[in-house]
Amino acid sequence: MDNNYHRHSRLINEFIDMTSLDLNNICVLTEAATGDYWVTPIMAAMAGAHVIAYAKDNDYASANESITFVRSFAKQFNVENKINFTTKLTPALINQADIVTNIAALRPINKGFIQHLKKTAVIPLMYESWEFRNADLDLQECERREILAMGVNESHERLPVFKNVQMLILKMLFENNFEVYNNKFLLVGNDKFADNFEYILKKCGAIVIKGSAWELSNNIQNYEKIDAVIIAEYTNPDTIISDTGIIKTDDIKKFLPGALIINFSGNIDTLALNRQGILCYPKENTGNFKMAETFSYLGIEPVLELMGAGLKVGEVMHRNRLKFDYKNAKTECLKYFLCQNLNTENTTL
After folding, report:
1. Collapsing DSSP states into helix, strand and coil, what is residue 121?
2. C-alpha distances in angstroms, 274 versus 158, 188, 271, 318?
3. How many structural domains are present in the chain?
4. Residue 348 lies in a domain
5. Does the N-terminal or the C-terminal CB of the chain have fewer CB atoms within 10 Å?
6. Any idea what DSSP says for residue 277?
């Protein structure tokens, strides 16, 4: 149950007002999930949508536990009559959807799923286009059936998602007993996550050496007094650290004694690190296309902003899809600051 209803209600309503989120006469198919992700179906309903909230068993809760959890918020926010909770995602329910959120319980949105969508249904990724994962969504089938799918521009000044990413790495460092100020970090990565980490760490007075895994590996013998190695390789499928990886565990032990491996995102062999007595956080491999900690690690506002932005992109997409054909609807959507292009021509992941 929500222990801070007034603050959360204020934040949701402020976001709805800021973005003019209007989901009246729109059906949103999304998930019922535990943690701060309860906010997605609740915000959609508060913005006027008819919501289908699907739940399935996961590592955190059973489907029924998730529904009970979200239903308690629906009662508190007085939107229970706008949400249809279900544990069975039937073709008939899929066909009702105008907006399908690309989030955990609904994945993969594959050919079998897409064939039941109406032609004017749309799919907001709920993340930026460069983060696209083929495992999430059959984009070729979407294009074949002219189902509009687009990314969310998380970098716009009106949507400070990457400011929250900066806070995320700071919290991870603080909770691992790093002062940050005057600490010295090797930052492995060249994507937006790494760029934002470099920016905030330097702003906080840290010394940051940033580069690709190959660049840092080739110069590892030249680094001294390194406090931590931060891995930010979100889209990189290669093994970044292992006995035979790009960065060798033997080299870390020899040249970076005492350095903690902070694996925000990327493939590392944690068993190899353990054998060498090298500390790492988290203790399990994060893997690529994942973050070690989600925005709920910070609090509800970052989750709310990210999910709300996806809903707004969905609204813009759907309203344009009702007015225009597939090609022209995409063109019109790209005039809105939160919408990002996504197609098989510029997606190779």
Report:
1. coil
2. 43, 20, 5, 50
3. 2
4. no
5. N
6. T
Token pair 């544990």 is found at 87
Indicate which CATH number applies to the domain containing 208. Answer: 3.40.50.720
Do residues 19 and 312 touch, judged by C-beta distance below 8 A? Answer: yes
**What is the average per-residue pLDDT within 130-134?**
91
Tell me: the pLDDT tens digits for 231-256? 999 999 999 999 999 999 999 999 99
Q: Is residue 140 part of a domain?
A: yes
* Token pair in block for residue 115: 């064939």
Alpha helices in the chain (DSSP H): 5-19, 39-46, 63-76, 91-96, 111-114, 139-144, 161-174, 192-203, 213-218, 249-255, 270-275, 300-323, 326-333
End-to-end CA distance of the chain: 39
pLDDT above 70 for 25:
yes
CB atoms within 10 A of CB 276: 14
| The two three-digit tokens of residue 66, written as one number | 């998730």
Q: What is the pLDDT of residues 204-222, one digit of tens each?
A: 999 999 999 999 999 999 9
Residue 345 lies in a domain: no
